[in-house]
Amino acid sequence: MIIVEAAIELVPESIQDHPSVRAYAARRGRKPWEILLDRSYHHLAMKRLPEAEKRGRPDITHFMLLEALGSPLNKLGLLEVYVHARSGHVIWVNPETRLPRVYERFKGVIEKLYQEPVVEADGKILLKLEEKTLDQLLDEVKPDLKILLSEKGELMKWSSFGELVTSARRPAIMIGGFPHGDFHKSTYEIVDKVISLWPEPLEAWIIASRTISIVEHALGIGERI
């Protein structure tokens, strides 16, 4: 599973001098360029930014990762998760990682990751951040089926979707990690299929949860108990 175009980035230089950004950074004892862009705190400053509607929502990725890492699919070693961030980085998430449940603590972990691009514990790498494009990630992962989930895609029954995913040896399912707007044209161009699982938009973490559940059902995971 790849969370693509995730609304994760440090505060851009163009708004680091905005009062709302400086005040929030000061409250946290950090510099403006050391904190994540977060619409909850930087809404006024973000009016200056291009594609502002797609930015400043790290909480979406947080919800999606909690869903993914806590799933039976992951616990059985059948899921690998990457975050393709808007900042131009890719975050690899160790399946054994236990992320903070509290959002503010999660932000602190990601901010630290931008300063020190590897988080380790007990000799294991839990999170790793690298400058990398989505193209480069896919070249490394080498999926034999690349699926983008989008409301613009072909509407597919869940059973058919499960059969499609499990028929591939190494499928990559890409889900948007932003609140509004559309994927960039380049994202549509690098996938094999664009699929919709519901006739109207659903929140990203709901799509992540349903996707994992559909694959688990197709693999008969619930029947192994």
In CATH, what is the class of the largest domain?
Alpha Beta
Helix and strand composition category: alpha/beta
Backbone CA Rg = 18 Å
List unreliable stretches of 5+ residues.
none
Describe this structure in a few short sentences.
The protein has helices at residues 19-27, 39-42, 58-69, 72-75, 103-115, 134-141, 158-167, 185-189, 204-218, and strands spanning 2-6, 81-85, 89-93, 118-121, 124-131, 145-155, 171-176, 193-196.
Report on the structure:
The chain has 225 residues and is α/β, with parallel strands linked by helices. It has two domains: 10-52, no CATH class; 60-224, Alpha/beta knot (3-Layer(aba) Sandwich), CATH 3.40.1280. 36% of the residues lie in helices and 21% in strands. It contains nine helices and eight strands. It has helices spanning 19-27, 39-42, 58-69, 72-75, 103-115, 134-141, 158-167, 185-189, 204-218, and strands spanning 2-6, 81-85, 89-93, 118-121, 124-131, 145-155, 171-176, 193-196. Strands 4-5-3-2-1-7-6-8 form an eight-stranded mixed sheet, with helices on one face. It is globular and about 55 Å long.
Write the layout of secondary structure elements.
Elements: E1 2-6, H1 19-27, H2 39-42, H3 58-69, H4 72-75, E2 81-85, E3 89-93, H5 103-115, E4 118-121, E5 124-131, H6 134-141, E6 145-155, H7 158-167, E7 171-176, H8 185-189, E8 193-196, H9 204-218
Parallel strand pairs: 1-2, 1-7, 6-7, 6-8
Antiparallel strand pairs: 2-3, 3-5, 4-5
Helix pairs in contact: 3-9, 7-9
